[in-house]
Amino acid sequence: MTSTALLANIRWEVIRLIRSRRVFLLSIPLVAGPAGSAIAFLYFHVQYEATAMLLGLIVTGGLSTLVMLDLTALTVGEELSRRAHFTFFTLPQERWAMLAGRIVVALGASIAVFALGAGLVSVLASALVPATGGTITINSAHMVEGIAVMLVFLGAVTLTASIITRSASEALVAGILSAVVTVAVAGYFLLQGTLTMLFPAVLGAAAVAAFVWSFVSYSALES
Amino acid sequence: MRGVTKRYGTLAALSDVTFSIEQGEAVGYLGPNGSGKTTTLKLFSGLTRPDGGEVRVAGHDIRSARKMALSKIGVLVETPGILPYVSGMDLLNHVAEVKGVPLNERPSAVNGAASSLGVKDQLGRPLGSLSTGLLRRILLAAAMVGDPAILLLDEPTLGLDPAARADLRVTLRGLHEKGTTIFLTTHLIEDVEEVCGRVLFLRDGRIAGDEAVSPVGSHEGTGRAIIVKTVDPVDLAAATGLIGNTATAERRSERELVIRFPGGDAAQSDILRSLVTGGVRVVGVAPLGPDLAARYMTTVGREEAV
What is the ipTM of this complex? Predict the structure, then answer.
């Protein structure tokens, strides 16, 4: 029964994405990410493939982040701000299944299109910037993992904010601010030469805590 | 609901409210704005929790067995929001899926609920493009998907035109006759008169009255009471002689009689024929309502009486 509710809510979120046409946002990291990266490779005459990969991942990761923030903020915040949850909260389903179904789609789709976009960037970097060598600041595989963890962390922050504020727009602002702070802190550590895997690990732990809080709070939410 | 108290800050929305509804009953819940009607419905549907007391739905505690309790009910909250871009079909299908209606039965469950409210043809439209009345009927259809044993309805006729309101009352009466338990909060006394067999009056978060509602036109549940309007001034003695021994007549106004009699349509037809053949020029007949409005005014007070 719980798995039924989970699947029903996954389907519901997919329907929402399609009907609201927000599904088209998912094409941005897939198309604009690699295309914008390719233009940047050529325009800046990027010399090394590793540098091109980092540039492409920053572009694609940034776009994926914006799309993810929007989808995540709306997936819960929109229902709460419109009071549409009155209809869904009175259905015989566990609220955690309801929330999980929604967030899996919003966050999962965003991470999936980032991964696909990163793959395309890799192909384009190899094709357009064939030279290897140069100084590798960050391993591109580590950067992909780091951005994926950052997406999960920012998704958790945005979800938490949407439950607290019951507003998609305020949750989106909270998510954007968190993204700016996260990137700034990561950049600081990078410049200091102290950026290690500890940073994404801390983000991951914070995301888990935020998700736990969100699920508990959502389950106890009163009208 | 037993000894239920609900507070919003310092404001007591409900104070030690106790009542029960039997299976198959249709109960109206009347009270002015802010008296606690919607809070009561939210408590029954798990949208809010009581500060004290116990709320049970079909024997299941709404806090400890929330999902079981919700599986028995269909709910229409007064002003639920909508996602304007999804269609009625999307919504009803989702509700049917969550309620566990098997895949092969979903089309008939969805279409059946929509057809009973006359909105089957509107299911494909985005909810945001619908009028208030159509939207309300689609949300009501969503509550009715899966034939829940209990319907909790908050102002179900709000925003409906008179024809749609009458249709909805007929639909609710039909559901009640089929055994669905109905709990109806409303400002409209006609809703209660035409749908419910019992009414609870709520005042300042407390139950102020709990009474049976006689069907419109009935008299003490065993017969009818009708108002007969005449062209000429009423001759009470002559009219009493015409209507037979089992019926009683009293003057309501110069040209109106109230006639009470046992029986139904056949007896009413006989009485009217006797009056007409006896020379009484009848121009109209109306059922004598149970005068719930007067009871509301007495029990609850002037505010919000409709």
Answer: 0.90
Q: How far is CA A66 from the centre of its chain?
A: 7
Q: Is the CB of B97 less than 8 angstroms away from the CB of A78?
A: no
> Can you give the pTM of this predicted structure?
0.83
A207: which 2 tokens? Answer: 């995301």
Does B39 lie in the same domain as B73?
yes
Is B292 contained in some domain? no
Confidence of residue B289 (pLDDT cuts 50, 70, 90): low
| Inter-chain CB proximity A8 and B98 less than 8 Å | yes
Any alpha helices (H) in chain A, and if so which ranges? 2-19, 27-43, 49-82, 85-89, 95-128, 140-165, 168-192, 198-219
Q: How many CB pairs under 8 A join A and B?
A: 85
β-partners of residue B30 are: B186, B201
**Based on the domain organization, do B154 and B280 belong to the same domain?**
no
Asked if the structure places residue B226 within a domain, the reply is yes
Residue A12, CA atoms < 13 Å, CB-side half-sphere: 27
Cα separation of B145 and B98, whole Å? 11
User: How many structural domains are present in chain A?
Assistant: 1
A 19-38 residues inside an 8 A Cβ radius of B: 19-21
Task: Indicate the residue of A11, A19, A89 with minimum beta-carbon distance to B86.
Answer: A19
The rounded distance, in Å, linking the Cα atoms of B123 and B130 is 10
Domain count of chain B?
2
The boundaries of the domain holding residue B248 are 218-287
In this model, does residue B306 exceed pLDDT 70?
no
Contacts 24+ apart (CB under 8 A), B244-248: B244/B270, B244/B271, B244/B274, B247/B271
- B-chain residues near A8 (CB < 8 A): 94, 97-98
